[in-house]
Every structure is written in C-alpha cells, then in structure tokens.
Queue: 2 jobs
Job 1
Amino acid sequence: MDIADLRDRILKQDRRALARAITLVESARPDHRAMAAELLELLRGAGRQAQRIGLSGTPGVGKSTFIESFGMMLTGQGLRVAVLAVDPSSARSGGSILGDKTRMERLSRDPNAFIRPSPSQTHLGGVARRTREAVALCEAFGFDVVLIETVGVGQSETVVAEMSDLFLLLLAPAGGDELQGVKRGIMEMADIILINKADGDLKPTAIRTCADYAGALRLLRKRPQDPTGFPKAMTVSAVEQDGLDTAWAEMGALTTWRRDNGHWDARRVAQSEYWFHQEVRQGVLALLEKGAAKDAIDRLGRDVSSGSITPSAAADKVLALLNVDAT
Ligand code: GDP
C-alpha cells in the first residue's frame, strides 16, 4: 500500500481513502501498525482542528436518534460531521451495541456525514488508541465536527472524555427523585447534560429531571475552565428535533469562551500527555503478557500458591527479568 498516496487522497477528501485508512489504524498486524504510524505522521498538522464532541448515555436513552437529528442539523448548516464510537461491549459480547450504521440511516446517506462503527477489540486500551487515531484521520480529512459516542459503561466515558473538547451526557426523563444513579465522576466529566425525550407525555418529567440535574450540577466544584452557568443541564427532543439548535449554541458559547481563555488548547495538551502516559503504562503491562515474563509469572505464581516464596520476592524476580527496579 502506498502511504503517501493514501495521505494525498485523504487530503483530497476521498472518503474511500479515509475508510481504508481507518481500517489500517484498526488493524493489529505489526506491518499495518507500522504503515498506520507512517500515515499518521505524514498527516500530522494537516487539515483542521475539528470540534470533538464526546457523547455518552445508557442504551435506549436516544443516542442514535440524537446523533442522527443533531448530525442532520449540522450538515444542514453546511458542516461536515464524522461519527465514531467507542464500544466497550464489543470485546465481551462479540456483538456491537454501538456505531451500527443501520441505526442512523438518514445521516449515513448524507454526503457530508461519515459514520464509522466501533472497532472490535480485545480491550478498551486498544479501542481507545484506534479511536484516537481515527479522530486524527477525520481531522486531517477536514471534518468540522467529530462526534464520539459511547455507552455509559465502566471506563469508556473517561476514554471518550479524554479525547473530546466537549463532553455531553444524554439522559432520559426519570420519575421520582432519584438522580438515575449517574455516578458523580461522570457528572463531573459532563459539560452539558441533555435530558432527551422532552416531548409529548414525557415533557413535564423531562423538565423536572432537568431541574434536578441543574441543581446537582450547581453543587459540583466550580471548574476554572468553565464560564458562569457551565456545566449545564438542558432538555431536548431528538425525535422532534427540539432544543438541538439551542444545545449547539451553548456548545459554541462554551468553546468560544475556552478558546479565548486558553483552556481549549490547554485541554488538548493535557489530553496528549494523558494518552502518552496511558500508552506507556499499557506497553509495560503488555510486556507481562508475553515471553519470559509471562513464563516467569506463571511459574512464580505457582510457587507463591504453594508458599515456597513470598509474593514480594516473586514479584522482584519478575521485575528483575524486565530490568525494572521496583524500589
Ligand atoms: P440509543 O440506544 O441510546 O442509541 O437509543 P435510540 O436512539 O435507539 O432510542 C431508543 C428509543 O428511544 C427509540 O425507541 C427511540 O425512538 C426513542 N427516542 C429517542 N429519542 C427520543 C425522543 O427525543 N423522544 C422520544 N419520545 N423518544 C425518543
């Protein structure tokens, strides 16, 4: 494969070349990894900085409906939109609950939109790297907005928030006074909480839920990277396309403020550092899964079980094999 040619075609906004490049970055084959690295290096700094928007929500809350309506609104304004997904379920279940093309039929037919399902991977770290690389490819291609979707499961929100400029949390209207068990950590990540399905019979509940969340957000620590009023809660209806323009305006206001105050660039820098450290950690952990280290771990594990060596002494032996000094 001619990587320089692939680069040129991506820069000429050839969608098939983009799809091919994403397939390349998703591949675990060492020769593909090398080509992917070369391509990303050739494209570094090309294109534009897209608005990267992370979106999380539990299954059924209306993510695909929202992305379709929101995406169509943006393409209607002449913006180009890419949709990527981080699907933590695909590794375990073998099936994907996200990023399925058929879920967003109208948007997937829109020439200004590009939808890519989540890569199936064995672990979230692999998905994270591949999604980050796909984001970079989409930026080089020239998309204005890159939406990165995930379900509200485990660590996947952190992964998506750490590669987004803005993080949206989509919630459904909830009866009662429970805050839907949304974990505080996830609330703290959100820049805007959108209570979806604010239509028909659900509207009054949605408005009440929104007020509950607005109250909860006010109790959170004030973030220096936010202007007054953020993070905020709003109601939308993805089905009726109601409130989407207001939500987009709020995202714009937050982005402008952060850009003007240096927080936007600072966030991207902090994210680069975060991913650098994550990759180093994952690389070190991967060393334990193969070769002499793995053999030693298996063998010493049995010795620890039988009581013939202490856990610390056994660990020291493994680390010595890796040339790592634990002290
Ligand atoms: P996802 O699993 O988060 O992607 O959710 P979907 O987009 O597939 O939506 C789940 C269900 O909620 C579907 O039956 C949608 O029609 C419905 N839904 C999504 N958005 C809205 C909305 O704005 N209002 C109403 N009333 N229903 C919605």
Job 2
Amino acid sequence: MDRPTLYITRLLPQAVMNAIPQHYRVLADSTDRPATAHELGHGFSQADAVICTLADRIDVSILSQATKLKIVANYAVGYNNIDLSTAAQRGFIVTNTPDVLTDATADLTWSLLLGVARRVAEGDALVRTGHWTGWAPTQMLGTDVTGKTLGIVGMGRIGQAVAYRATGFRMSVLYAGRHAVSSPPGVSWTRQPLDTVLTHSDYLSLHVPLTDTTRHLIGQRELALMKPTAFLINTSRGPVIDESALLAALEAGTIAGAGLDVYEHEPAVSPALSSLPNVVLLPHLGSATLETRVRMGLICLENIAAALEGRSVPHRVI
Ligand code: DGY
C-alpha cells in the first residue's frame, strides 16, 4: 500500500514535526509564509490528509482539486476558513483543536484587558523612547479593573475561562450566550440579553465563532449602547466587529478603548486604528504559546491517524 501523504500548509513547531509518523510522506514548505492558492491546490491534489491554518482559505476551488483526500485537520479551534458545505458534499472529514488552546486564549484576553485598562503599551513606548521624565501624580492614569463589571459575549469554553479569571479581580460577570452555563462555586455569572450586557459592562469581551449570524455582531448600534468609559476586547474573529464602526466610536469617544488580537481584514490593520493611543493591538496571538501550539499539532495528528485508520475521529467538526 502507498504511504499516506500528509500536506502541511505552514511551518509548525518542531515538536509537532518530530511526532509525525515515519510512514507518512510529508509534503511541507519549510519557508514560513502563507501558501498561495496555487500551492494549496497542488498540496490538496496530492494529499490523503492536510493540516491547514486559519490563514488558509480552503474554498471550493481548493477542495475540488483533492483526489484522495480523507481529512482536513484545521490547526485552530475556529474553522470559518473552510468551506464546510463543499467539504461535506465531497465526504471529507474536517477537524479542529478545541480545549487545548482555551487557557492560552483566555490568558491573552486578560493581557489585552489589563493592557488597555492600565495603558501598558503606551507606558512601554514612553520608557523606550526616552521621553519619560519621572513619576507624576497625573501621569498616564488608567482605569480600575478590580470590582468592575465584565461582559462576555459567547460563553463557550474560552468565554468561561475568561470569566473564571475575573473572580480574582472581584468582578461581576454578565454574559450573553446561546445557553445558560453554571457558575463556579462562590460566584454568580448572570445571563442577560446582549443589549443588557452591552449597556452594563465596563469591559466587554467577545468569544463567539465567526458565522453568518455573528458577522458584524458589534456594529454602530451596539457600540452606542456601551458606556463611554467601557473597553472592548476581541480575541475571537475580526469580522465579529464592524471595524469602521469601531474606529468611528473610538474617535468619537463613544467607548474608552479597545484591545484587539484579530481584525476584520487580517492581516491588514487600518492605519487610523493603529494611530489611536487608546487601543492595544496584537497580531492574532490568542493560542500563541509553545506548549499550546504543540498540543494543537498533536491533536491534528491524532485526528489524522484516526481518520486514515478508519477509527472514530475525536475532534470532528463534520
Ligand atoms: C483559533 O484556534 O481559532 C485561534 O484563533 C488561533 O489562535
């Protein structure tokens, strides 16, 4: 029997590469750059299994080049980059990497929240540029986090992990989500309609997947409902926010600031957004710890082995 071909669209951590079973034929580009559509098509035409990333657009034109493909293992928890209906029609299995990146993403959400509340990036820039002249009572004043209200939109695994961390800051937690979830012992998370969460939160954090329903979930109307002192944090997917409405709200002072890890037209970031001092901007680092990125890769390999061996596939999306 021919060795199965595994196509990997992007350089992965070495520990993941080392764990690839010896009997696979690996098709991978060692240069660390996004694959072109042509390269994706070629890889899919050869592959029994693919590991792709959230930056690869796996649409009908790519999927239709597959000749013997069994599984597309997405190296992410979100899978909005894959045309699921075409994949399903073609009988391909699609998997993701849930659970293993929950804590890393929740931690990064808190980095953004604290960073924007306490002006960490601005402070860092002041010191580095040599413009700091010493401590002053009114210098670079931020906003309290402890005791404030945290609003969470989307109370899945990551939303809950973010809410859980709020306990140490003695925050009240409101959330809008499709399902009620139970609060951990000793705290009470309150489920409310989205508009109520928007109106009452001091910090609003987004944790919904990108779907037709959640695209531009936060637009001009929603931003106008938020407090002028509130901060918006997004570590989910960029298009969940209407970015031009956000820019207008930040410029007009409709809200106080934003912490963003994801962008509507990623990796493009509007220069107007980058010029605002009251935003903290990160380059989609939600799951970016070495331990997490290795675990994500191992999950992809586990899903692929199961699919190729005809066993039940653990993290199946379709
Ligand atoms: C995911 O897995 O969807 C994250 O956005 C990756 O960082």
